[in-house]
Specification:
The protein has about 325 residues and is an alpha/beta fold. It has eight helices and ten strands.
Length: about 325
């Protein structure tokens, strides 16, 4: 009499699963212990790098310009941000060329979409420029101190800037600094580029040279397109996004538990504000270049810099305000 053997039940390895909405897009896997250790290691190395770097930058800022080290503080800030990217395991791919300064001496205002605090690390490590940030950042623990050493220009959320803010931005441009601007006015979930607020582009009207010419504007698209070495999609992209009422500590903790992260920076053709009839027209053309470039990157299609031109506002008005 033959004995029937029952097949063994296969052991199922738990897949990567998404948590609920209250966890703000966090992802976990079966090896959470190793992930936590990796996150702790990243925190320690970031502190070990940031504390002495802050001291070095403080000294560079205090050095007189006459010593010929005026650009050292700009170069070191870029080294700091690019090192931060490496410490958290975020590689950065750049498509296109940044305009550092035009042949006739005009500085550059880089105009980018904004979905995360990671944008600071990514752009700061690739562009010789200072950030324009909301004034609340100055009060954030540690982040505010790092931002000040990065010579960040703080502005209010209001539609119009105060005279002091305009004077500081004008002085920075006239002094040879390039600036990085996020005209969405807030961060998004990374699935789209929010409308650009034309009031933020008032910086493009400020005289930036001795003869009163404004700075050049270069649109920039930033998309986080790799997670675990694989293309990101709608389900995994929120891991990078930092928006709403998320706190930076818990967001970093979740992100640090992952490997194979990549951001792509797409630098479009620069725009001359003098070629546009109004600030709103400039904001619209800049937004369209940034949004179209980001859309291409999110779809994991080959992307090329866009040569933006004045746009018919009526044709894209539903997506722009």
């Amino acid at each position: 009499m033959s004995q029937t053997t029952r097949p063994r039940k296969a052991t199922r390895i738990p897949p990567l699963r998404r948590l609920g909405a209250r966890d703000e897009g966090a992802w976990i896997g079966p090896h959470s212990g190793g992930r936590r250790l990796r996150a702790i290691r990243q925190i320690v190395t970031i502190l070990l790098w940031s504390l002495p770097a802050m001291a070095v930058q403080a000294v560079l800022i205090l050095l007189p310009e006459g010593l010929g080290l005026g650009r050292a503080k700009v170069a070191f800030a870029r080294i700091y941000w690019s090192t931060m990217c490496r410490l958290i395991g975020l590689s950065v791919r750049v498509i296109g060329q940044p305009v550092q300064r035009t042949a006739d001496g005009r500085p550059v205002v880089y105009v980018s979409n904004h979905s995360s605090w990671l944008d600071i690390l990514v752009l700061g490590g690739r562009l010789d420029a200072c950030f324009i940030a909301k004034e609340e950042v100055a009060r954030w623990p540690l982040v505010g101190a790092i931002a000040r050493l990065g010579r960040t220009v703080y502005v209010r959320r209001a539609r119009t800037s105060t005279g002091r803010e305009r004077d500081e931005m004008r002085a920075r441009l006239a002094g040879g600094d390039n600036l990085i601007l996020f005209p969405e006015g807030t961060t998004s979930d990374g699935s789209r580029v929010l409308p650009f607020r034309s009031a933020f582009l008032s910086i493009a009207e400020l005289p930036a040279t001795a003869d009163g010419r404004p700075a050049i504007v270069q649109p920039v698209s930033v998309v986080y397109d790799r997670l675990g070495g694989l293309p990101t999609g709608r389900a995994s992209r929120p891991l990078f996004a930092w928006y709403g009422d998320m706190d930076i500590g818990s967001h970093f903790w979740r992100l640090a538990q992952h490997r194979g992260l990549r951001a792509t920076v797409l630098l479009h053709a620069p725009l001359d504000p003098a070629a546009f009839p109004s600030r709103k027209a400039l904001a619209l053309a800049t937004w369209k270049a940034v949004a179209d470039g980001a859309s291409t990157l999110r779809q994991n299609r080959p992307a090329q810099p866009i040569d933006a031109a004045p746009v018919d506002a009526a044709a894209v008005q539903p997506a722009y305000a």
